[in-house]
Design goal:
The chain is of the alpha/beta class. It contains 4 helices and 5 strands, in the order E-H-E-H-E-H-E-H-E. It has one domain (about 1-120): 3-Layer(aba) Sandwich (Rossmann fold), CATH 3.40.50. The protein has helices spanning about 10-20, 40-50, 65-75, 90-115, and strands spanning about 1-5, 25-30, 55, 75-80, 120. The chain has a 5-stranded parallel beta sheet with strand order 2-1-3-4-5, covered by helices on one side.
């Protein structure tokens, strides 16, 4: 399965994923495909280069009829990563990378088994930090 990361995701996501998932073919808009393409054209161009799934932070694509139709026509799967509106600056990037890193094996398993183009929308991280209630506490 070939995975394409959209240009709106942090470039660090590509570095993390290609290091941690070396057996997967993971590309990035801006390297394998040019930046600035219309999304409707991007899906077709990605499919022509053998990509099976696009992962993006542009969750509006899912509600845009033309973009959704173009993704389906290109036989591409679509994965959206929501932002946590409470986060600022680099915490946005870190949370998106963590969410994708944590979810990638699950996504690949389900997308490889899918019989038709499929969409997944990842929930944003629920808080700024994943620290259990009642912590920190003195030892």
């Amino acid at each position: 399965m070939k995975i394409l990361l959209d240009e709106n995701l942090p470039s660090a996501a590509w570095k993390v994923l290609t290091t941690q998932f070396p057996a997967k073919d993971i590309g990035r808009v801006g390297i394998q495909l040019p930046k600035g393409m219309l999304d409707t054209d991007l899906f077709s161009a990605a499919h022509k280069q053998g990509y099976d799934v696009i992962i993006t932070g542009d969750i509006k694509q899912l509600s845009n009829t033309d973009e959704r139709r173009a993704c389906k026509a290109a036989n591409m799967h679509w994965v959206g990563i929501q932002r946590n509106p409470k986060l600022k600056g680099k915490d946005i990037m870190r949370s998106q990378i963590a969410q994708l890193y944590f979810s990638l094996n699950f996504l690949i398993q389900h997308l490889e088994a899918a019989k038709e183009p499929t969409a997944f929308l990842l929930n944003p991280p629920q808080g700024k930090h994943s620290i259990a209630e009642g912590f920190p506490q003195p030892l």
